[in-house]
Amino acid sequence: MGRANGVTEEQLRDLPRYQESDAFSDLDRLVLDYAVAMSRTPVHVSDELFAALRKHFDEAQMVELTAAIAWENFRARFNHAMGIGAQGFSEGAYCALPER
Asked: Which of 34, 4, 3 is nearest to 18 (CA)?
């Protein structure tokens, strides 16, 4: 799905180090920072980060972005808690794992 929407192989490989990677634009980094902040427990999105995003997105776009991130976070946490693993729908797809 990511590839169909313009995500490159380099971006997939560099996702764990997106902050330093040349594969991501400044806006990409802001959005990823927002996703990371929203996925923390407890959630902490700084006023500075939110203000930086508002320079690029209007209110409706911020709602859509926030909802998309929240939904994916909910889905991932639900699946993890229930022990639901991969179902084989993305065979051969690239899965970027965080660096340890």
From this structure: 34
pTM over 0.90: no
Alpha carbon 87 to its chain's center: 21
Q: Are 46 and 37 in contact (CB under 8 A)?
A: yes
Separation of alpha carbons 58 and 56, rounded Å: 7
Q: Using one digit for the tens of pLDDT, what is the confidence trace for 33-81?
A: 999 999 999 999 999 999 999 999 999 999 999 999 999 999 999 999 9
- The domain spans of the chain are 24-76
Q: Which residue has the tokens 């927002």?
A: 34
Across 41-66, b (16+ Cβ under 10 Å) vs e yields eeeeeeeebeebbeeebeeeeeeebb
Q: Residue 21: count other Cβ atoms within 10 Å of its Cβ.
A: 15
